[in-house]
């Protein structure tokens, strides 16, 4: 015997092991007689290669459950939660704008009050310091008396 050729093991199959199983192994033997009363219900199911094969019903996998019917009512254009967020944002912005405008008005009023008060105090001081004659075009009741004393002394020796 040649030593370069490996010996075949007795359990090595001679047929290729990669082909799909044929349907002949599922068919009953032609010599066997099967009566309809002895035979249970048979269902056809797809195998791994997409072919339909017969299978006794009690060995078949359970059928797929019917899915729940979908709700096909039309949805609103905007999500209600998104509408609430949008309304809260717009309302909050309007509230902040109103508060800001009100605070600005209060600050402006306080600044105007300070400026107006200073103006009225200045006008009161000016009116208090102004003489009445200046207010009545120079014809007031104020009388200025000027007294001049002239003294001459002579020495007659």
Tell me what the structure shows.
The protein is mainly alpha-helical. It has a domain at 80-129. Helices cover 34% and strands 6% of the residues. The protein is built from 2 helices and 2 strands, in the order ββαα. The chain has a two-stranded antiparallel sheet. Strand 1 and strand 2 (52-56) form a beta hairpin. It is rod-shaped, with a radius of gyration of 60 Å. The mean pLDDT is 78.
Offer a concise description of the structure.
Keywords: Membrane, Transmembrane, Transmembrane helix. The chain is rod-shaped, with a radius of gyration of 60 Å.
Spell out the helices and strands N to C: EEHH
The largest pleated sheet is described as: 2 strands, antiparallel
| Secondary structure tally, helices | 2
How much of the sequence is in beta strands?
Answer: 5-15%
Number of strands: 2
Structural class: mainly alpha
N-C termini distance = 192 Å
CA-based gyration radius: 60 Å
On the 0-100 scale, what is the average pLDDT?
78
Key attributes of the depicted protein:
157 residues; membrane; transmembrane helix; 2 strands; single chain; mainly alpha; transmembrane
Draw up the topology in text:
Layout: E1 42-46, E2 52-56, H1 80-129, H2 132-135
Antiparallel strand pairs: 1-2
Keywords: Membrane, Transmembrane, Transmembrane helix
Transmembrane segments: 85-103, 109-128
Region (Disordered): 1-23
